[in-house]
Write a structure and sequence with these properties.
This protein has 84 residues and is an all-alpha fold. Helix 2 runs antiparallel to helix 3.
Amino acid sequence: MTSKVEETAAVAEGPGYEQARDELIDVVRRLEAGGTTLEESLALWERGEELAKVCRRWLDGARARLDAALAEEEGREEGSGDTE
């Protein structure tokens, strides 16, 4: 299993979310259109799988950042000691 630091580094080295998403959309369109050889189709499918993983890592990272920010906010609200 990879650490969060390794995952963050891997995401930073690869394409951005939007770039990966746009390329994935193009791959899907090409596969759906047909007219490619089996070898080309397999290569496109493999590229699509890679791009889907990139997108998932970006989304997981965004979710982790949001969760951390929400937890921090909750901690501040709980720690404010509102006593009436």
